[in-house]
Amino acid sequence: MSRAPEPWPPVETDLPQRHADAPDPGTDLPPHYAHCFGCGDQAEDGLHLRATVGEGHTILSQFTVTEAHQGAPGLAHGGLLACAFDEALGTTVGNLLRSPAVTAKLETSFLRPVPVGTTLFIDAHLDGIAGRKIYVSADGRLDAPDGPIAVRARALFVLVDLSHFVTHGRKEDLVAVAKDPSLLSHRPFEINP
Ligand SMILES: CCCCCCCCCC(=O)SCCNC(=O)CCNC(=O)[C@H](O)C(C)(C)COP(=O)(O)OP(=O)(O)OC[C@H]1O[C@@H](n2cnc3c(N)ncnc32)[C@H](O)[C@@H]1OP(=O)(O)O
Fold first, then answer.
1. 9 domain-assigned
2. The pLDDT of residue 185
3. Ligand 1 midpoint to CA 101 (Å)
4. Is residue 108 part of a domain?
5. Domain-embedded: residue 174
6. Whether the Cβ atoms of residue 34 and residue 41 lie closer than 8 Å to each other
7. Is 7 inside a domain boundary?
8. What letter would DSSP give residue 1?
9. How far is it, in rounded angstroms, from Cα 63 to Cα 19?
10. Long-range interactions of 135-138: CB distance < 8 A, separation 24+
11. Are 66 and 96 in contact (CB under 8 A)?
12. How many domains does the chain contain in total?
């Protein structure tokens, strides 16, 4: 299998415009949903990823690998690392464009093992937009913002209407959110951006 990088983004794109209401660089972002496996503070054994807005088109996230995240003894599970990148990339799209979007495609390259106890520093970047398609990529570094790269990811997110979540979400969870809106982040999306 060739390791030659394929062109990225794979189609012609425009540079995404940061939404006028995107949080300022340096802002620490709250969990977007309390029960989100990636960032939720009520998701036991979740990743508890924390994200801070960076300059330009970037968001910096970090999470610490725990015993609950193992694949092999003492090492993070690769699928779980992919989950962390899905979250970090989705947070980047959602916060900088202020529009709901879902992951359509996620590609991860695992370059180094990630031991339990490691903190991964994930630097995610909005790369391009083509209609509803948003291209994003990220590097994950071991134990420091300038540590060695352990994981790389790139993804296609597709902008969706909020009705996507109402149509497909489990009813009892939607009802729970309606009863307690604090389960969701306090920065609601615009319905018609
Ligand atoms: C602040 C908020 C923070 C949020 C963080 C959350 C992080 C976590 C994010 C997730 O994990 S979301 C959950 C996992 N993803 C899903 O459940 C999505 C499931 N898939 C779908 O619902 C639909 O397939 C989807 C909305 C992605 C697309 O369906 P649509 O009918 O709306 O659109 P369509 O199929 O026409 O695709 C739109 C464009 O995207 C392209 N596309 C869609 N899926 C693709 C794919 N897999 N590969 C390549 N291209 C793809 C498609 O070809 C097309 O390109 P063109 O506009 O050029 O024709």
1. no
2. 85
3. 8
4. yes
5. yes
6. yes
7. no
8. -
9. 26
10. 135/8, 135/9, 135/10, 135/13, 136/89, 136/92, 136/93, 137/8, 137/89, 138/85, 138/88, 138/89, 138/92
11. no
12. 1
Per-residue pLDDT of 35-49, as tens digits, reads: 999 999 999 989 999
Residues having CB closer than 6 A to ligand 1 are 32, 38, 86-87, 90-91, 94-95, 102-105, 131-133, 156, 158, 160
* Ligand 1 atom index nearest CA of 131: 57
What pLDDT does 193 receive?
A: 36
Residue type, 59: I
Sole residue written with tokens 């090492």: 75
Cβ neighbours for 149, distance < 8 A, ≥ 6 positions apart:
111, 112, 139, 140, 141, 142
Please report where in the chains the tokens 């106890």 appear, as a residue.
117
Range 42-51 contact pairs with CB under 8 angstroms and sequence separation of 24 or more: 42/183, 47/80, 47/83, 47/84, 47/87, 49/84, 49/87, 49/88, 49/91, 49/122, 51/88, 51/91, 51/95
Q: Are 130 and 136 in contact (CB under 8 A)?
A: no
Q: What distance in angstroms lies between residue 143's CA and the mean position of ligand 1's atoms?
A: 32
ipTM above 0.90, yes or no: yes
Q: What CATH number does residue 169 fall under? A: 3.10.129.10
* Domain assignment of residue 66, given as a range: 28-179
